[in-house]
Design a protein that fits this description.
Blueprint lengths: L1 H23 L12 E3 L5 E3 H15 L2 H17 L3 H17 L3 H19 L2 H17 L3 H17 L3 H17 L3 H17 L6 H19 L1
Antiparallel strand pairs: 1-2
Length: about 230
């Protein structure tokens, strides 16, 4: 009997989350949020916020970014109300990134500057601040605001070193190289990519090899065009 009731609750939450689709297109509509917390195995819980987050990811994977924005936004508000500030910050960054995909640079920037950084400063999370700096680096790079992008990627790298996060530091170096490629500083960009490759090799991290290779291909293409 307990199993049947639990299954029914999950179905109800899934249906309630799906039903929000029509109303969420334009943003929040009132305060009719779900407040169901479902007990599962052990002490873990599946909340309304988790349901909205899962829906957002589904829409994101399918390429429906407008609905992804709506559900990430709803999930963020729920996490904030539940005082789950680490999840709140993570969701806001995902929300910002979805706006970035849609080329809504101003909105993507505003979310990080006014909400994400404030949240991570409040809870004293340097790792969160580092993620926010990286996100701003990406936003400004896409918006072609190269001095700002370079500054935030540099701050991202400084925090990565302080936290001894080798992967994050490599990402910051690759980010800086991307900025220099846009600035047409190909020689300096190549040095950064060589540095990123060496750091990856020393740390035995292979996941950035393809990114480094792709950036080198861009440099080769750009420089060959200049010679012609």
């Amino acid at each position: 009997m307990k199993c049947t009731c639990l299954a029914l609750v999950f179905v109800l939450v899934g249906c309630s989350a799906s039903a929000q689709n029509v109303n969420l297109q334009g943003g929040e509509t009132g305060n009719n949020h779900l407040s169901i917390n479902i007990a599962v195995v052990g002490s873990a819980t599946f909340s309304a916020a988790d349901g909205f987050f899962d829906e957002a990811e589904k829409y994101e994977r399918s390429g429906d970014y407008d609905n992804a924005v709506a559900y990430f936004n709803r999930a963020a508000k729920e996490y904030q109300e539940d005082k789950k500030f680490a999840r709140y910050g993570t969701t806001l960054i995902r929300l910002s990134n979805t706006h970035l995909v849609l080329s809504n640079y101003a909105e993507a920037e505003k979310i990080v500057l006014k909400q994400v950084l404030k949240n991570y400063t409040k809870i004293g999370s340097k790792a969160g601040q580092m993620a926010a700096y990286q996100q701003l680096g990406k936003i400004y790079l896409a918006a072609n605001k190269l001095p700002q992008s370079l500054w935030f990627y540099t701050q991202h790298g400084i925090l990565a070193q302080q936290l001894n996060d080798k992967s994050a530091y490599i990402e910051s170096v690759i980010g800086i190289a991307s900025v220099k490629i846009k600035k047409k500083d190909y020689q300096l960009a190549t040095r950064d990519l060589n540095n990123a490759e060496l750091l990856s090799k020393n740390a035995n991290i292979i996941k950035y090899n393809q990114t480094i290779k792709s950036n080198r291909a861009i440099i080769a293409e750009k420089t060959s065009k200049r010679k012609v």
